[in-house]
Amino acid sequence: MKHKIRIYIILVIAYLLVAIPFKVMEVIPGFTDIRPVTLLGPVYALFYGTPGCIIFAIMNLVMDAVSGQLMWSSIAGLLANFAGPFLFLLYWKKVANNGPYLRTPGNIIHFSVILFLKAILEAVMITPSVALIYPDINWMVFFVSVVANTSFFPILFGIPLIILMKEELGFKMIV
């Protein structure tokens, strides 16, 4: 049990180390910013399973709270930041059957497409709450920024991190 608690503390610290420096780079002030931390969603899901997905979602809510961006739409953000990585994990566990194999260009493209679809799902989950509760926010800009953040960073930086963790550092995936 102590080992798991240590791992969860490390996941929280890693989230904070990636999230905090970029919190000042806002796209829509008070609503969305440049979020490199989204690269950790698939990493946490594949290597730490459901607890990793929960930590990722809760830390998003914590960052909203400490940065003064906690709003009613943060509930949708909490749900989307859990559901996206969790459904990503389920895809690799139940649908793909053999987990992600990132050694060929075709497999990396497949992985990237699934990440992009996950990003769209998350944007579809969050955007309606923002559009309904805050009608003065341009929902299309918000939607695009969510998709861009939750696909660009995991594809560009998450995939190399996953390859490094699995192939070079010997981390075991849940799938």
In the CATH scheme, the class would be Mainly Alpha
SSE class: mainly alpha
What's the CATH architecture name? Orthogonal Bundle
Shape category: globular
**Annotated CATH topology:** Arp2/3 complex 21 kDa subunit ARPC3
Order of strands in the sheet with most strands:
1-2
The biggest sheet, with number of strands, parallel, antiparallel or mixed sense and barrel status, is: 2 strands, antiparallel
DSSP helix fraction: over 70%
Poorly predicted regions are none
* Domain unit count: 1
Q: How many runs of DSSP E, i.e. beta strands?
A: 2
Figure out the total of helices: 5
Instruction: Return the average pLDDT rounded to an integer.
Output: 91
> Approximately what portion of the residues adopt beta-strand conformation?
under 5%
SSE string, helices as H and strands as E: HEEHHHH
What is the C-alpha radius of gyration, as a whole number of Å? 16 Å
